[in-house]
Specification:
heterodimer; A: 338 residues; alpha/beta; Rossmann fold; 8-stranded mixed beta sheet; 4-stranded antiparallel beta sheet; 29% helix; disordered N terminus; B: 340 residues; mainly alpha; MetI-like fold; 14 helices; 2% strand
């Protein structure tokens, strides 16, 4: 199955078989009685300078996947290859230099900045941590430069976060993430807490930064409009697993997995002709502590048949033909000719 | 080194550090705004607290000599505080009523007729003077105990909340054990074991009072640990110690201040209870109240001793509590963090 994801060149970040399970503990002795399988066998490839969007409904494990890659959550199994090194196998001290290359932008601009710190301290934290710039003055200069880069007034570095609007705070968060000169930014719902007009500004900023700095993004989102605008590639997650991957255009054009089809059909459109007739997905997401047998989507799938509840489908290449790297975790896509 | 020299050193250190704190507060816009609105809300209570503090400080500055002690050689070589000097010649022979010209029993004239605002006690000491001496004791008990209890609760609370697991289990076990013992019995037992000095009473009060705050700190740390900005710091490779010092502690600061002010009054009151049980600190208001108990059954009643001690205690606690409530309102993170 992994071969399906390795067509063109060496990716910047390669995630293989990532599993993050949270133990459920019960009783006096805190015995582990089960696991919440938040991330269950996720494989991704992100190429330098490109954007991979990780989409899925809330609770599907996309945030946990992002945090596991950064080792903010500890994954049970899997490999995260970056620069020829498996990050999950490193000790904390060995990991430190690699942290510089992978940074995180958060969803909530209110909660992601320390209310007791000035903007300068917040942005300079990465500089201190990685020993970039020796003197305070050098730090101040760099912070000023970073603030300009995210289109904020450098004079505002002496203010506190609560003096800024949501969009400005998100820019500060981006400046903080850019401070150690990363190669990959993991944007965890980075625009979903913002007004639509501000969202567009931030998305444009991220796109400009990608052009200027050659950043790669892992863009975690549930907003397919954002995906279409920003992403080169898409990975769709359902209940801890990647169910479909592909180049953005190809995936929006011809979704293979019934879940992807349903997601795309749910994009609101003002043009009646473009409204799709795909059946809506009913019901709630099953508990990740006790996922359904066989295909995880079979309880809600409009195209379900016998085999779905008995056998587990693999992520197999399909469609796209000329090395597009499309893959789908569905028996229907498997059987249909590419 | 003699006790009065230490008292001078500690007092000057306190004065220097409070000047530094004031400077730090003025530099931070957030804190100076908070202090400004505190002053606007509770000017009288702050004035009262400042008055008590001033008396406490005046009573902590000692030097030898400078008093016309006559033939009393011992007194001439004793260190006296500013308050002692103010009341140097106020000694009478026995009880006198407030502002009286003659002694309470009999009608012998007083040394200082009409001078004793709250009368004198059994051995002729001015009651206002005794009440003023009690200020320093009260401040010492509240302050020193908090100085022991707060760092202790911060250390244990933060490590339990931040690291969790085994550390949390151990801290929680210690806290539950202490909390399950009757406070008063534990206090008396500790004081009896350590001796009845001011310091040992403060240690005993600290041991019995840190648990509540520790629990608060632990809970708050649990919450802060999961905040995005702590996660961001971790993603930036900031060490655990740095995260605690730069992110966790500053965000606990308002909690520390609120708790300090609110437990302060509780501690002073606990001392009064201990004094009433006969294990208090010498010269405290609690001891004055304890000694004045029998005076209430005299006829005519000798009320000024207990009244002076009670009013002093009441005034300090009321003012401190009012300031504490105002601080809590002002520093509440909900009103502080998201002010647009």
């Amino acid at each position: 199955m992994t071969d399906a994801l390795e067509p063109r060149g060496e990716p910047l970040l390669r995630v293989r078989g990532l599993r993050t399970w949270f133990p459920i503990k019960h009783g006096l002795l805190r015995r582990t009685v089960g696991h919440v399988k938040a991330v269950d066998d996720v494989s991704l490839d992100i190429r330098a300078g490109e954007t991979l969007a990780l989409v899925g409904e809330s609770g599907c494990g996309k945030t946990t996947a992002g945090r596991s890659i950064l080792r903010l959550e500890s994954a049970q199994e899997g490999e995260v290859w970056f620069d020829g090194v498996d990050l999950l196998s490193l000790s904390n001290a060995e990991l430190h230099p690699y942290r510089r290359k992978l940074q995180l932008v958060f969803q909530d601009p209110m909660a992601s900045l320390d209310p007791r710190m000035r903007v300068r301290e917040i942005v300079a934290e990465g500089l201190r941590s990685f020993g970039i710039g020796k003197t305070q003055r050098e730090h101040t200069d760099r912070v000023a430069h970073l603030l300009e880069r995210v289109q904020l007034n450098p004079d505002h570095m002496w203010r506190y976060p609560h003096e800024f609007s949501g969009g400005q705070r998100q820019r500060i968060g981006i400046a903080r993430a850019l401070a150690p000169e990363p190669q990959l930014l993991i944007c965890d719902e980075a625009v979903s807490a913002l007004d639509v007009s501000i969202q567009a500004q931030i998305l444009n900023l991220l796109r400009d930064l990608q052009g200027e700095l050659g950043l790669a993004y892992l863009f975690i989102t549930h907003d397919l409009g954002v995906v279409k605008y920003l992403a080169h590639e898409v990975a769709v997650m359902y209940l801890g697993q990647v169910v479909e991957t592909g180049r953005t255009d190809a995936l929006f054009e011809a979704p293979r997995h019934p879940y992807t089809q349903a997601l795309l059909a749910a994009i609101p459109s003002i043009d009646p002709a473009r409204r799709s007739g795909a059946p809506p997905v009913l019901g709630d997401v099953p508990s990740p502590a006790n996922p359904p047998s066989g295909c995880r989507f079979h309880t809600r799938c409009p195209a379900v048949f016998d085999r779905c509840s008995k056998e587990v489908p693999e992520l197999v290449p399909c469609g796209g033909g000329e090395g597009q790297g499309s893959a789908s975790r569905c028996f229907l896509a498997e059987s249909s000719p590419g | 080194m003699e006790a009065w020299v230490i008292s001078n050193i500690v007092t000057s250190l306190l004065l220097v550090s409070s000047v530094l704190v004031v400077l730090a507060v003025r530099r931070s816009r957030m804190w100076s705004e908070a202090m400004g609105s505190l002053w606007k809300r509770r000017p009288i209570a702050i004035g009262v607290v400042a008055f008590y503090l001033a008396i406490g400080i005046l009573d902590s500055i000692y030097w030898v000599g400078g008093i016309n002690a006559g033939e009393d050689v011992v007194s001439a070589h004793e260190a006296k505080s500013v308050i002692d000097r103010l009341f140097a010649d106020s000694r009478e022979r026995s009880y006198s009523a407030p502002l009286a010209d003659v002694e309470f029993y009999g009608s012998a004239p007083l040394e200082n007729p009409g001078w004793h605002l709250m009368g004198t006690d059994l051995i002729g000491r001015d009651v206002v003077y005794l009440a003023m001496k009690g200020v320093r004791v009260a401040l010492l008990i509240g302050g020193l105990t908090s100085l022991i209890a707060i760092p202790l609760s911060l250390l244990f609370g933060i490590s339990a909340g931040y690291f969790g697991g085994r550390v949390d289990d151990v801290v929680f076990f210690v806290m539950s054990t202490l909390a399950s013992m009757p406070t008063l019995l534990l206090l008396i037992a500790l004081i009896m074991a350590m001796g009845r000095s001011t310091v040992s009473i403060c240690i005993a009060l600290a041991v019995t009072s840190w648990v509540g705050f520790c629990r608060l700190v632990r809970g708050e740390t649990l919450k802060l640990r999961e905040q995005d900005y702590v996660q961001a710091a971790r993603a930036l490779g900031v060490s655990e110690l740095q995260i605690i010092l730069r992110h966790i502690l500053p965000n606990l600061a308002h909690l520390v201040i609120i708790t300090f002010v609110l437990t302060f009054s509780g501690l002073v009151l606990s001392e009064a209870v201990l004094a009433w049980l006969g294990v208090g600190v010498d010269g405290s208001w609690g001891q004055m109240i304890d000694q004045a108990r029998s005076e209430l059954s005299r006829d005519p009643v000798v009320w000024w001793n207990i009244a002076a001690a009670g009013l002093s205690l009441f005034g300090l606690l009321l003012a401190v509590n009012m300031v504490g409530d105002a601080i809590r309102d002002i520093l509440d993170p909900r009103t502080l963090r998201e002010s647009p």
